[in-house]
Every structure is written in C-alpha cells, then in structure tokens.
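Design review, sub-item: ligand-bound model
Attendees: FS, YL, KQ
YL presented the inputs for the magnesium ion complex:
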Amino acid sequence: MKNRKTGEARLLEHIEKTFRFPLDRRLLLGPGDDCAVLRHAPGKDLVITTDELVEGTHYLARFAAPEDLARKLIRINLSDLASMGEVTPVSCVVGSGLRKDTPEDFILRFMKELKAEALRFGISIAGGNLAGARENHFYMTVWGESGGSELVTRYGAKPGDLLFNFGPLGLAAAGLEILLGGRAAEKKKFPGLVKAFWRPEPLLKAGALLGRTGLASAMLDNSDGLARSAAIISELSRCRVLVSPGEGACPPELRAYSALKKKPWRHYAVNGGEDYGLIFTSPAKELARIKALLPGALVVGRLEKGSGSELENFNGKVESFEHF
Ligand SMILES: [Mg+2]
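KQ shared the predicted structure:
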C-alpha cells in the first residue's frame, strides 16, 4: 500500500483537515484519532467517540438479529475508548433511524440487549434519538474518563519501534464472508469466526495496561484491517511500516476456513476489518515487558525511517499491498 487510499479514507482526511480549528482550548485532541479528548478539569479528561451500524453497509437484515446489532454497536464504540489507553467508560447516547416496517418487537429486543450490555460494561444510557429512515441504522456516542495516565494517540510511533497486534486478526472478515454466503453448514462449522464478527471484545483492560505503563508509543483499534491500520500509523507517525504477520497470528479456525476457501489466511488478517483488536507500536527494547504483561500480543511488523507501509517477508520479499 504505497499509499493506496479508499474513497472513505480520502474523505476522512479532508474532514479532519477541515474541522481542525479547536476554538475550545480544552479540546486536547480533535478529529483524526480514535477519540476526541476534552480536559474538563485539571488532570481530568473526557474521552469521546462515535460510531454506527448501517444496514446494507455493515450488515444485511437477513443475518442480523436485534441482539447482534445492540451488542456490536456498544462494543465498537467502547473499543475506541480502549485504544486510547487508560479510560473508564462512563455513559453513552444512542439513536436509530428505522424503516416504517420495523416490527416493534425488533426494537424492544434491541433495547433489552443494549441495556444488558450497558450493565455488563458499567455504562449508563444517557439519552438518544429516534427517526424514520429508508435503511435501518443504529448510532452511538460514548464517553469515558481518564486522568491517571497519558493517553495514547496514533502519532507517537518512532523508527525502530515494533508493530504489535493484540486480539483477533482476520476472524471477523471471515465471519462476515460466512454470513454473506448464507451457508448454514459453514456457520455451524466456524462459530468462532461468526462470533468474531458480531461480538468483538472491547479490549479495555489491555488498553488501560498499555496506557498506564506507557509502553505503547501509538495505538488504534483495528476496525479497518491490519493494512489500513499500518497505513494510518505510517501517515500520522511519519514512519515506514513493514507488516509481517507470522504463522502464530493465525488461529486454527481461520486456518481451516482459509484452507476450505483456498485463500491465504493473511488475505483475511491483512485486508479484513472489524476485528477491533488493539494495534500498537512500542520500542523494540520493550518486547520482553510487553510479552510478560500481555502474553497474547504478537509482533506483526516493524517501523523504519521513511514513509508508506508494505508487506514483508512471508513470501520472501517486500511487496506493496496491491500485489497481495
Ligand atoms: Mg477506532
């Protein structure tokens, strides 16, 4: 990816530039990171993010139960808080645009699960909005508090750092492929992949640990795949990122599924999105400390002086992502 950018990435860049005019001096971090950060009292920060699920874009009605949507909506938002470091989730507001033909039972089930999830993660639902719409969509804004330790942005990585992944890699993309394919036998055979798509785990404890110890120089949650995450770190931290996920990054279920589909597992791991693991960088000398604190964290690349992001090693040479 010597800088292949999707239309969405280009538009986001334009949005971030356009709105970078913080009139409020308490706004420590504005557009362009996983969350905005507002210092509301000395040493006390509010950490804020928003995300949504749109029918036809993020899921299809035929494979989405209201409980799935409620769980995923809250979890993808909390995942953004996790990627900022030590943040305690506090509350959210939630809204939806609904087609006229949406059964009342669907909405009640969505609400019931949303409440159960809010209680599970210890956050309040502070308000929201409802409107009619042509396609169903569900959105949320969530905020948390921070103050004890420095927050981790996307732009602190340095040449010589290692690139780490903590959490699933490629599983959700395979899960979505199974759901789109609609084959019941595949769904039954690969439950972990489908679960990875619908129930991402916001890695709040791991994020807090990395924030508290100051071990992560840059961090984001993996919403758009390893390749896109590497490109973001490369652009914002002004480094060259070489991505090289080793065999250890592929769990047996993804290995079995990619064999069935005759695709390399790295196709899912590198290009697939919506895993919501933590992707972070750290100086190479911290490798042992990171392994001790987060045994599941895997080195998936390294940073050099320069620009751009490319794949390295697993087929014996450096390649741009387009050739993969
Ligand atoms: Mg994010």
